[in-house]
Amino acid sequence: MTPFATLHHADEPLLLPNAWDHASAHALAAQGYAAIGTTSLGVAAAAGLPDGAAATRDETLRLALTLGSGPFLLSVDAEGGFSEDPEEVGEFARQLAVVGAAGINLEDGLGPTARHAAKIAAVKAAVPDLFVNARTDTYWLGDGEGTLERLDAYQEAGADGVFVPGLSDVEEIAGLVKRLDVPLNILYSPNGPTVPHLAALGVRRVSLGSLLYRRALGAAVQALTDVRAGHTPNGPTPTYAEVQAFSG
Q: Which of 76, 73, 78, 75 is nearest to 33 (CA)?
């Protein structure tokens, strides 16, 4: 079992913060997190490109190259693999592994189950040690119908873990945990179960997705509003030297 896979089988679930650039990744790692993920929304928005449209392949690979040698294990949000050709997705995964990625997140976007399963199988064939977190969007884009069938297919294709963003019902989460043979990843929501509650349900990985990126944007706008109104911005502000240090 790889070090990254081991984090999914520890006493506590893996709480995975998602970064969008070098500084954010190193700032999060400095808080003691052994693994850092990327957020496709943050990567896309920073480049002025749409998320979920297979438009950020180069940006994603470039960020992985920047972060892959960092003092943390890196999991890359690769949308749907930036191709509908499983072999091309496998090759992209191989490139991510070469620059240091320990994991990849692949979403089905409610495309055909068989096609996504083929992508997963291609990645595992190309890079057996790369942790594949197979995401289904049955709750993110739909009403949950077909979740078990998709997850069963993704497990059979070789997924090391499965991800069901948008699912927050505690009974349904507990039911999935009992049915799965691999770790379940849930997307944290401020309106959903807390991390301790998810841990008690058997969830093994909790992702923050784009939450930190969106909060950072919100904090920047709020700070500007406070300054304009004659108030001192609240909240921690890293010094110039601290941010410089993240560049190592």
A: 73
Q: Which of 37, 32, 3, 80 is nearest to 212 (CA)?
A: 37
State whether residue 81 is helix, strand or coil: coil
What is the per-residue pLDDT across 141-188, written as a single tens digit (0 to 9) for each? 999 999 999 999 999 999 999 999 999 999 999 999 999 999 999 999
| Residue linked to tokens 């693999």 | 81
Domain 3-211: give its CATH architecture: Alpha-Beta Barrel (3.20)
Q: In this structure, is the dihedral angle defined by the CA atoms of residues 194, 198, 204 and 205, taken in order, positive or negative?
A: negative
**Structure-block tokens of residue 96:** 């991510």
Q: What is the dihedral of CA 104, 51, 172, 203, to 10 degrees?
A: 40
pTM of the complete model: 0.96
Whole-number Å distance between alpha carbons of 149 and 126: 25
CA distances from 192 to 135, 167, 169, 174, 200 (A): 19, 9, 8, 14, 14
Name residue 122's amino acid. A
CA-CA distance, 90 to 130, in Å (whole number)? 11
Are 119 and 86 a contacting pair, CB within 8 Å? yes
**DSSP line for 32-54:** T-SEEEE-HHHHHHHHT--TTSS
Separation of first and last alpha carbons in the chain: 30
User: pLDDT by residue (tens digit) across 57-111?
Assistant: 999 999 999 999 999 999 999 999 999 999 999 999 999 999 999 999 999 999 9
